[in-house]
Amino acid sequence: MEALKIDISKVYGFVPKTDVYTLSEKATESAKALENKTGKGNDFLGWVNLPSSISDADLKDIQQTANKIKKQVDAVVVIGIGGSYLGTRAVHEALAPTFLHLKADRKNPVILYAGHNIGEDYLNELTEILNDLKYAIVVISKSGTTTEPAIAFRILKNHLEKKVGKKASKELIIAITDAKKGALRTMAVQEGYKTYVIPDDIGGRYSVLTPVGLVPLAIAGTDIRALVKGAIDMEKITASSTPFGENPACLYAATRTMLYRMGKKTEILANFENKLHYLAEWWKQLYGESEGKEGKGIFPASVDFSADLHSMGQYIQEGERLLFETVISVGKTATKMVIPTDKADLDGLNYIAGKRVDAVNKMAELGTMLAHVDGSVPNIRIELPMLNEYYLGQLMYFFEKACGISGYLLGVNPFDQPGVEAYKKNMFALLEKPGYEADTKKIKERLA
Ligand code: PA5
Question: Which fold has domain 50-227?
């Protein structure tokens, strides 16, 4: 099997190769620290060897549960926020037919999402649609206490119980949470839901290959074995024993670190395949939460090309020169379509008649890369042979490993997220949550 490739040659005009290679030792040491659990945040490194430690029995069990649920429903609502849903959405939207929900002859249930916002209209519109659908719920929360998914679960649990009865609803709910702690664990035990455990030593944004991602993805019809196999192969390829120049995770981490040090503070993840939109959302969480702390860190942004060439393209080409771009380039499309010839040629497109649509897309990609490099936007290119489970498994593990290495090169703990507590504290104080009395008093005085 082929592996993803990284091309950093379009960075050398901005940062010489020798400068990137000055970080080779530190990057390899960082990879080693992740593997030996000797660096910062070392109690959250369960993801490093996760792919190769997933057992056949675990995969079989998840697949059996998925097959049982799939047969009974038209839709599955995945309830979760941040790392508890973005990995699933990234893989599912990259692989499932774009118009699945409109297909009459669906083989797999439609996946819907809740608990990733607190939109009243969203929840009303969702429950309205669910009135007419057979559905199951996969509720995911590591802490088991996150407000957004807890509200969504309370509402949907109620809805499902009313719709099919309390007893039947229990067979349609799967809870994925901590082994012991949290309100979701307590509820699952009391109600008798099927449960899966999120290991203690794996944080949300690194959890896509735990039941957090594997259970909903298996229900959605994803080949989870191929996804895991891709990650296993990438675990080997990115091992610290691989020489720096052949190790894509080390190369990516070192390159973006050098670009950051020379003032390129924003990284834009770009795709020319819009099915990768949520992969970029997952990536933004992974890098944003891992690196953005202590007043440091690259700001992760994303664009879907060619759509965003007609909006953000102007800024990227000529705006403030703080940017570098990482392009995920997909080799082969899954299907083929040729641009037809038109006798009248009123649209003037006959010069590309007979060409594949993808051939035009590839020229848009090449032309954009050259234009952006000319506009002082360094370009890192990550090449995936095609979009399938195996290569997505490779890509996601590659990004995780590179993120850990980048965090260590930056000098932060890439596995905590103390900053996300600030809004929660204010929200709880404003909502007068028991235990927050002093904060409520303070915030009311501030707002008076
Ligand atoms: O990466 C993380 O740790 C976070 O984004 C969490 O995944 C997110 O806050 C959801 O937390 P929980 O799974 O505890 O509900």
Answer: Rossmann fold (3.40.50)
